[in-house]
Design a protein that fits this description.
The complex is a heterodimer. Chain A is of the alpha/beta class. Chain A has one domain (7-246): Glutaconate Coenzyme A-transferase, CATH 3.40.1080.10. Chain A has helices at residues 7-16, 31-43, 82-89, 132-138, 171-175, 212-217, 236-246, and strands spanning 24-26, 48-50, 55-56, 78-79, 96-101, 104-105, 111-112, 115-116, 124-125, 141-146, 182-187, 190-194, 201-206, 229-230. In chain B, strands 1, 2, 4, 6, 10, 11, 12 and 13 form an eight-stranded mixed β-sheet that branches. In chain B, strands 7-9-8 form a three-stranded antiparallel β-sheet, with helices on one face. The chains are: A alpha/beta, B alpha/beta.
Chain lengths: 255, 325
């Protein structure tokens, strides 16, 4: 088997490694869908994948292309609606991990998926919050997928759609959000985490073949790299399951 | 099925349903979600009838929203998300319209919009949530004060207050209820008695329908009363919520309909290309909307080959092995 891997494959595997049995995993589209499915097939068979649209624990024999995809309704334990879905994300008895993506992120893991430039007349308009703001408010932890670029890792967001650690320290709790926060950021270069006290982002792992300097260069704010170590590359087993079982049509793996 | 159907006064054609219930400036709730169960047939009819200045309220919407915006039918929008999954991560005409300042818009989240429909359905003026605290959804108002004075527009986007039941500092977000003029729902089945059954995920369709003044349901099939009443646990809406029923097989195409057909990847890919070009988009509207006289003509355009490809496996609900690139 070809052991060369794509960025999306490395990102899906890096994120999947965070998931534990018993976790309830909230999946979005694209790499996040790949990561959630990989997590369940490889690391945490007792994790449950569910979607904001209301599909709980679908069989996922084919990879969904949207969170409303018919494939998220097939083989589920239950098909519900949006309100029920968000009651699960924030449920006090459940440990929920949400996968999100964003156009911009700041050092506290706050996300922008709304617009760049003036809000009323933006230079670039994106899709908007969807369920992102909701899960960022409610989930036990959020893992965000990003392309690692200076223009995306910014000092100040153009619009704060989804709250991570807000302004750092205990500012998130003071807002009135009872739990959660940014758990990790998984990019095409490495994995970032957040300091337990300051809640600032630091480099946790850089991928094989990626230098720490490259990550510093592509981050638009100062990032602590003192704790960085090299990530282990995907194993043959991980790649095999990802390619043959999770995304056999290679709809997302390839990119 | 025949003369004794209980819904004969509600059964009508697309043409009549839109003429009777949708006016310039109507506030419309769109059912479905991004690429699934969009009320496409009604959206196309709205465009054909030249209805303008619509105020759309929705959570995550895709194809129907984008076509309506592109055709110039939408003036105002309250929305959480405009996207078509991988086929257009941000809906293209939606994006253009906002960037060019062509429409008035207000951003909420999916849960917030769903709760606003629920509040409307419950006939309460507002509803609390913890969602959005600290976000710019709370600090940035899209609508001007002038718009805020208009019909069916809440006087404020939202309000943050201290939990009145707690001594400790504890903020909640209050969201204004929505009661749209019309909710558009595409369902798999409507019974001869008018009962609606949505298969697969219902999204916020049920809350939307109950919050609206008028509900138009398009459906794949009208089924016998004996069938719809055999397993009532499966049903979504009782008959008295529904004002118009239109049988339109493939009425959600090119979006999917669980158990009946998948989304049409070829059409959605083609749409992404044409939507990016004003001239091509105009031709698309001519070809797929204005020049289409009957539902049969539309299906002929989609073609037997694609209809077979997207045909859902009735057990799994989707088209197995469909080329979705």
């Amino acid at each position: 088997m070809n052991l060369n891997y794509s960025d999306n494959e490395m990102m899906a595997i890096s994120a999947g490694r965070f998931i534990k049995n018993g976790d309830i995993v909230f999946a979005g589209t694209g790499v996040s869908m790949l990561a959630a499915t990989a997590a369940k097939r490889i690391y945490a068979p007792k994790a449950v994948i569910f979607f904001e649209t209301g599909g709980i624990d679908p069989s996922l024999d084919e990879i969904p292309m949207a969170v409303s995809d018919l494939r998220v309704m097939s083989g589920t334990c239950l098909n519900s609606g949006l309100i029920e879905a968000f009651s699960i994300v924030g449920h006090r008895k459940l440990h929920t991990i949400a996968f999100l993506g964003a156009a911009q992120i700041d050092k506290y893991g706050n996300l922008n998926t709304t617009s760049i430039g003036d809000y009323h007349r933006p230079r670039t308009r994106f899709s908007g919050s969807g369920g992102a703001c909701d899960v960022a408010s409610f989930a036990s932890g959020v893992i965000t997928f990003m392309q690692h670029e200076k223009r995306r890792f910014v000092e100040k967001l153009d619009y704060l759609t989804s709250v991570g650690w807000y302004k750092g320290g205990d500012s998130r709790r003071k807002l009135g959000l009872v739990r959660g926060g940014a758990l990790a950021v998984v990019t095409n270069l490495g994995v970032m985490r957040f300091d337990d006290v300051t809640r600032e982002m630091y480099l946790d792992e850089y991928y094989p073949g990626v230098s720490i300097e490259k990550i510093i260069e592509n981050t638009g704010f100062e990032i602590d790299v003192s704790r960085a170590r090299q990530a282990s590359p995907p194993t043959e087993d991980e790649l095999m399951i990802l390619r043959n079982e999770v995304d056999p049509q290679r709809l997302i793996c390839k990119a | 099925m025949g003369n004794d159907m209980e819904i004969s006064d509600k059964l009508m054609g697309l043409d009549a349903a839109v003429k009777r219930f949708i006016k310039d400036g109507s506030q419309i709730a769109l059912g479905g979600f991004t690429v699934v169960r969009n009320p496409m047939a009604v959206a196309y009819e709205i465009i054909r009838q030249g209805i303008k200045d619509l105020h759309i309220v929705c959570h995550s919407h895709g194809q129907a929203l984008d076509v309506l915006i592109g055709a110039g039918c939408v003036k105002r929008l309250e929305i959480a998300y405009g996207g078509n999954g991988r086929y257009a991560p941000t809906c293209i005409r939606f994006k253009k319209a906002i960037q060019q300042g062509d429409i008035e818009f207000e951003d909420y989240s999916n849960y917030q919009m769903s709760l606003r429909f629920l509040a409307g359905a419950l006939n309460i003026p507002f509803i609390p949530t913890k969602s959005g605290l600290g976000s710019d959804l709370l600090t940035h108002e899209g609508f001007s004060e002038e718009i805020r004075k208009q019909r069916k527009v809440a006087r404020k986007k939202l309000s943050v207050m201290q939990n009145p039941f707690s001594e400790e500092e504890d903020n909640v977000v209050l969201l204004p209820a929505l009661n749209p003029d019309v909710a558009l729902i595409h369902a798999q089945y409507v019974g001869e008695d008018g009962t609606v059954r949505i298969k697969g995920l219902t999204f916020a369709d049920i809350e939307q329908a109950k919050s609206a003044d008028v509900v138009i349901v398009t459906c794949e099939e009208i089924v016998p009363r004996s069938f719809i009443r055999l397993d009532p646990d499966q049903n979504s809406l009782p008959p008295f919520f529904v004002d118009a029923i239109v049988k339109v097989p493939y009425g959600a195409h090119p979006t999917g309909c669980y158990g009946f057909y998948d989304y049409d990847p070829k059409h959605l890919n083609m749409y992404r290309t044409v939507a990016n070009d004003d001239e091509k988009f105009r031709k698309y509207l001519d070809e797929w909307v204005y020049d289409i006289k009957t539902p049969e003509e539309y299906l002929n355009k989609v073609g037997a080959e694609m209809l077979m490809k997207i045909k859902a496996n009735p057990v799994l609900g989707y088209a197995v092995g469909l080329d979705r690139r």
